[in-house]
Design brief:
245 residues; single chain; 7 helices; alpha/beta; seven-stranded mixed beta sheet; three-stranded mixed beta sheet; Rossmann fold
Length: 245
């Protein structure tokens, strides 16, 4: 995020939020002041429902949202529940008995119970859809990104999810894995299964961080525009500060 801030000439202020403390709809009181919301990678079910509340808030309120690894998986779960009507949708990581397993263990590793050696690790190629946020950010039709995860998008639910507007904009060349999801009716709403932070540097920020922060800046400016018509900013206020949660 800080790398993306440098690329956009803004200072990013990061607030860490305890996801397990977020409830719906009161989470809006906590999240309303942020210019962008990011859910990072992780494992286990602790705080997952709170993450889903935050993602729903970002989607409904048009706040820029970036989901990385687990953040993409919870993004898919939220969309399945609240847009597609699959109220019990979940990942088998959190509920192995869910009737709608929109996220499940990597297909070639199903049946393997041990934690060690079951991950999809390393760099893999990905093809980007035309006219997508990802394609615009990278400026290229194909990329290679680094992975570290056990669970994936379940393509058995592709039709219902895409039929309700979810865009699968990054996929492996063989069509097996979904790597990036987006919404076209949202200013910036993107989840990626890989870890862009592995390839980001201060003077060479990852394209997705750069694009996400640019969207957060635009969101902030849009929110402040009515106030700026009423008062002139002080010299101290002229230096942009971005607040990301």
């Amino acid at each position: 995020l800080l790398h993306g801030g440098l690329a956009n000439d803004v200072k990013v202020r990061i607030s860490w939020i305890e996801a397990q403390e977020l409830e719906w709809p009161s989470c809006g009181e906590t999240l309303d002041r942020y210019d962008g919301i990011l859910v990072p990678g992780g494992f286990g079910k602790r705080g997952v429902e709170g993450m889903i509340h935050a993602i729903r808030f970002a989607r409904e309120q048009k706040v820029p949202y970036f989901g990385i690894c687990l953040g993409m998986q919870t993004m898919v779960i939220e969309y399945a529940r609240h847009v597609c009507g699959l109220s019990k949708a979940n990942s088998t990581e959190f509920d192995n008995a869910t009737p709608d397993r929109v996220i499940y263990k990597l297909r070639e590793l199903k049946g393997v119970d041990e934690l060690g050696g079951t991950m999809r690790l390393g760099a893999y190629p990905c093809l980007l859809a035309e006219a997508s946020v990802a394609r615009k950010a990278y400026g290229a039709p194909a990329i290679s990104e680094r992975h570290r995860h056990r669970y994936e998008f379940n393509r058995e639910y592709e039709a219902v999810l895409t039929g309700h507007g979810l865009k699968l904009t990054g996929q492996t060349p063989d069509g097996m894995y979904v790597e990036i999801c987006e919404l076209s009716n949202h200013p910036w709403y993107l989840g990626c299964q890989f870890h862009p932070e592995f390839k980001s540097k201060p003077l060479e920020p990852h394209p997705l961080f750069q694009s996400f922060i640019a969207a957060a800046v635009e969101h902030r400016n849009h929110r402040l525009r009515p106030l700026l018509h009423l008062t002139e900013p002080s010299p101290a206020e002229e230096q942009q500060y971005l607040h990301a949660g």
